[in-house]
Amino acid sequence: MARLKTKGVSKSDIARQYLARHPKASVMEIVTALKPYKVSEAVAAKIKYTEGAAKPGPKAAKKASTNGSAGTKSDAIREVAKGMTKPVRPMNVRAALSAKGIEVSYTQVGQVLTSMGMKRKRRRRKAAVGAAPVATSNGLNINDLVMAKKLVGQVGSIEKVREALAALARLS
User: Fold this and answer.
1) What is the largest CA-CA distance in the chain?
2) Cα–Cα distance between 86 and 105 in angstroms, integer?
3) CA pair distance 94, 73, nearest whole angstrom
4) Has residue 123 got a pLDDT over 70?
């Protein structure tokens, strides 16, 4: 390893110097290489990811720099989707972009299309307004129970309704 300037220099500066010479080094590689300087994993990660010594920011990572065009992948998805006939499907958008050399995931395409309002939203089935009531486990439905409650109110009690039903059964 090349000699780093360490006299009067902080651990962060040592990590920055190392990253300048090894821009693709992982955090663990930095920690291992700078073990004599006691650079911690937290310091190495902070220098690598927060300060952007070796890794550009999230917007720059998503650049779709093909054929000299500058812009994000999302911009490329929007551009391709606007030029397509409906229905626009993520599979078709992804195929068109990969033909241009831009790799995107189905999920990203779907999210961009949804934000543009181009992806259909699935609707739940509405309950029918005058549909037949749902039957209970013993074959009764809600309307039958409401009628039975009215009958109990007219006769006076459940016992009297049972007696009347038993008498009716004997007559039949």
Assistant:
1) 111
2) 20
3) 11
4) yes
